[in-house]
UniProtKB/TrEMBL annotation:
Keyword Chloroplast: no
Pathway(s) the chain acts in: Amino-acid biosynthesis
Keyword terms: Amino-acid biosynthesis, Aromatic amino acid biosynthesis, Lyase, Phenylalanine biosynthesis
Protein name from the UniProt record: Prephenate dehydratase domain-containing protein
GO cellular component, one term: cytoplasm
Lineage: unclassified sequences, metagenomes, ecological metagenomes
One annotated GO molecular function: prephenate dehydratase activity
InterPro entries: Preph_deHydtase
Keyword Transferase part of the UniProt annotation: no
GO BP terms: L-phenylalanine biosynthetic process
Residue ranges constituting the Prephenate dehydratase domain according to the UniProt record: 1-83
Cited Pfam families: PDT (PF00800)
Cross-referenced PANTHER family: PREPHENATE DEHYDRATASE P PROTEIN (PTHR21022), PREPHENATE DEHYDRATASE-RELATED (PTHR21022:SF19)
Length: 87
């Protein structure tokens, strides 16, 4: 499953449909909260999060892919992350 704020999920829908079409998309209150929950082990180990680079650094998450947003001229940049050490 992929967790993030609804706006981030919408802004990355092409990437998600191409790469994670079988995974449920779970709306969170905000991207940082999703990243925090992942880092604290409150999400399944197989879960991914859409958040920004600052969240990945703050919560010690591994960046899987950068610039996954659909509109490249959009000023909000999203990337996929996972907890370090998890496969």
């Amino acid at each position: 499953e992929i967790h993030s704020h609804q706006q981030a999920l919408r802004q990355c829908k092409d990437y998600l449909s191409d790469h994670f079409w079988t995974r449920p998309l779970i709306e969170e209150d905000d991207t940082a909260e999703a990243a925090r929950r992942l880092s604290e082990g409150k999400l399944p180990k197989t879960a991914g999060v859409i958040a920004n680079k600052a969240c990945a650094e703050l919560y010690d998450l591994e960046i899987l892919q950068e610039s996954i947003h659909d509109l490249k001229h959009n000023l909000t940049l999203f990337l996929g992350v996972k907890k370090l050490g998890d496969s």
